[in-house]
Amino acid sequence: MNTATFKRKIFYMLAMVALLIPLFLLGQPPSGPRGQGGTLAKLRERFDIGQSSLGQLDPASETMRLASLGLRGVAATILWQYADRFKEEKYWDLLSATLNQLSLLQPHFVSVWESQAHNLAYNVSSEFDDYRERYVWVKKGIDFLVRGTQFNRRQPLLQYHLGKYTTLKLGRSDEKRQFRELFRNDNTYHKTLMDYGLDLEQPEATGSDRKPDNWLVGRLWFIKSYDLVHAGYYCKKSPIIYFGEAPWALFYYGEAIEDEGVLDDKAMFAWSRAAKAWSEYGNLDLMTTWGHTIQLRGLDSANEATLKAVELFREQTKELLPELIEQGKDRFTTDEYALLQKPEADRTPQEQQMVDMAMQKVMLAPHVLAQRMPREKRAESIQLANELSEKSDFAFRVDRSREMVNYQYWETRGELEQTPTAVAARRHVYEAEKYLIEADLNKAIQSYELAWKNWDRVLRRYPMMLHEESSDALLKSIERYATSTDSTLGDDFPLNWFYRYRAIRDKNKAGDETIRLYDEFVREAENQPGNLDTPIEQ
Amino acid sequence: MRLTPDQLWSFYEWFIPQQGLLQGISLAITLAILGLLVSYLVAMVRLGPGEGFYAVAKVISDLIRFDIPGTRSSRLWAIAKLSFMEAIRRKVLVVFVIFIILCMFAGWLLDLRTDHPAQLYITFVLSSTNMLVLLLGLFISAFSLPADIKNRTIYTIVTKPVRATEIVVGRIFGFSLIGSMILAALGLFSYVFVVRGLNHTHEITTISQDGRQGKTEVAARHDHVFKLGEDGNGYTEEAKGHQHTITAVQLDNKTKYVVGPPTGELTAKVPIYGRLTFTDRSGNVGEGLNVGYMSEYRKYVAGGSLSSAKWQFERVRESDFREGNESDDDIELTIEMNIEAFRSFKGDIVTPVRGSIILRSPDESIESQRIYFLVKESVDRKLISRTISGFRNNQPATLDVFKDIVMNEKLEVIVRCEDSQQYLGMGASDLTLQAKERSFAWNFAKGYISIWLQMVIVICFGVMYSTFLSGPVAMVATLATLSLGLFGDIIDRYFKVEYSGGGPIESIIRMPTQKGVMIDLDLGNVALEKVIHNIDYAIMYGVSSLKGVFPNFSRLGTSDFIVYGVDLFDGLLLRHCAITFGFFLLTSLVGYFFVKTREMAA
Lengths: 538, 602
Fold this sequence. Notes:
The complex is a heterodimer of chains A (538) and B (602). Chain A contains 27 helices and two strands. Chain A is mainly α. Chain A folds into three domains: 107-284, no CATH class; 296-401, no CATH class; 419-525. In chain A, a hairpin with a 5-residue loop joins strand 1 (286-287) and strand 2 (293-294). Chain B is an alpha+beta fold. Chain B contains 18 helices and 22 strands. In chain B, helix 7 (117-151) packs parallel to helix 11 (440-466), helix 11 (440-466) crosses helix 12 and helix 13 packs antiparallel against helix 15. The two termini of chain B are 58 Å apart.
């Protein structure tokens, strides 16, 4: 053999053997307890990105990925394009099959599961006219997501979406009645969900008829998602909204069963459970975008702390007040100036209020005021100003966060709807409308009249309800009553005040008259709260 | 299943009026002229202008005077046998083993929760067979001749009185023979796999007290509800694309209900397609409405107006609708519809949108009364008995569908939407008349014949490339031909800029720079971007044009017919046979030319 060729061959062999050593050190798979294996295996372990730690290993998925011979990206791109074309041309079965193949090729891309589940449940389902067929496709979307959770066990977002689809898509769409009914009786599907680890036989999942309810089942998905977040996995959703989904599901469950005619202690229990869950949610420490946590029920304490800080700061800086008043003298009216000269102890509450409003015209920002303090008090004043600013910002953020989730509204609603009078009011309206459909006018009128008396109590006690959807529905019921009885809704009509208020509000929107009337109702409710524990049944 | 108008042409219609023959001849002439020009240029470079012309002319002359007349079937058969044995030696039978392994693990790859398992099974066997057999054809044809040339065994052939035509055509025949054998075995196995895989039955779990309805157990991931007649026999409702018959059997003085095997999922329906036109709200000829969808396939008619869709059918023969030994009176006209509803307002979501059908004679003097229907989301089958009430010259009359309304084998079917402010959508293939079904087994076999035709084309191209390219290069060239044929539609879409991201040069820039396809290229140099765009356009134009010369495998594929249970039209299959023969002639001639001009003997 040629010496040069021989030498070259020996060199290649030695190089291969030498390269095997780093290859082994890098790529040795783990074969024993945790922490074993090569460098790459250890890194996977450390960052938790190993195949098996992401989710279940599916032989079909692995086979398809191997069979694509490194062209997985090309195959996935082509499949996405086919999926889009099938959707455009309405080849639904081919679309479903293509999405299945895509999920096998890219099982750990959460966006594949998210976007295509949405496609199936929302876009494809709406293409069908028959609600039963729509339900089938919504289920396919949900099923697609459920399979996604098997491959991505540490992705709270997928469970979250499952909760959203099961609650909102089945419970708030136009076909909600039909969907809820189908879901309730879909025993085959319940078994499938139970195979995926969701216990649908527990009381937390079953509704008033002891069958799984979509709102309650959706809530279970939300709770599964929360468990993952509490275990340390990240979910890219705002915590304030995210953690509110589960208690909201309970509220909507209460609404749904009342809408379906369950207007007894089961409804009261449902609302009571929802109110409790909402209160627990209000006590959670929720991270905000401002970089700190808040508690939604912490507004009162935040406001108190702010007031205290204001008092301290005022006390600290009161020596500057005369100077400010003098400097801004031209901005005050004569009366205001006179009141400002009056000692604080001699002022009536209304006068004090006027003084506070007048001082707004000349008051400086706390930090500016603090800077004007004498040198020996300046440092302390600045500190107090900082504290005031912090507490005031904190209180503002808590308030803003509460507004985001309409916390006050749901808190009040939960309190109100669990009362016997509220349930009775709804029940009487429901019965009245049933009698109207059956053309039994006498019974309908009797039920309506009981309903108005109970609603009168409810609305006087909780004027907030005057602006809600329930009040719109109540108005329609009143109009049906008026038409049926040829009544002009005179002064003896128990909800005359409500009817007039709505007429003014609908005309003025948020005009002065509306605000004035509403404030009156609020004051009346505060002064004479009324008792909602005993409904009017005669 | 949607068809394009050209698929509905008969063979004669395609061949002469639609100029199939003319297109083939013009393509052949164009390629011949181009080929001769290129040959002459190559010969001119090697031998000079005069000698070059002489060399080309000699090859043509030899072909016409000696090689074609002198081709002998015995020698063809000898070469074919050699190629056959060579392929066997190359262990091509492993394809069979691969297919069996695929079938064994089919459960992993198939989503058995689908609503149409029959379609899934058939798609699986047809797709995997198609791919395997085409790859088989590719590998055995591309490497054979180059291997012989490399090993110098070709000289033992060319030094004998074997003509170049026999070398090329013999190999094509030999490889086609081995491919046919394997395909036949795969086809048989696939048929058994499909039939056995879908075969199942159910036990009855619940039955009502009156014995008229009930439910079966869950088997094969589904169950059925069923209704029985007074005699205890009946049918289950359709689920997963099939039904079962239920028979009452007396056993030990007790009635036992036996559920039969599945029916209705392995079919070969014979649809008769009509020509679709629309009228507008005033009843005048119109275009049909677009309700906002991107797809132009379906057009819509408005409810509560004179808007309608009209299908005009030809070749409507009574005998085509006779099932078995039915008497004349029992013959029914079967209409199959797949109509879509579009609501402009939700209304009563529980009740489907209503439509109506009218059968009318071509001269519009005789029409049936309205036959109302509720829109179903799946295929809706209407059986219309031959005796029907209607109007003759606007006078009420009792009509015979086949004798009165059908005239000269022509019939019109009009569909209207009956719900005001709602719409019904339909395309040309969405309403068909269903003649009696043919055998699924024969239809399945026709599907495999289609695959065989594609395999023969691949073998022809493989052999052709192998006459002037080395083995691996011939394989890549054949693979490129196959890819262009399979993915030609996607290439056309890129060329028509239906997909974002530009062409190959722009893609090479986008990938390392991580620029998404939906944003502009933005290199900061407009002139450079323009140059890139123009080069890409030229490349895509070239590829798109080249695609037109090669066979369009996606159009030659007919698996959709088998999958959706529609009888594969004989005219379409004949057309594909003609196309295959055309490519066989073309590739044989090119291959002959290269074998003739290569200096095989030292």
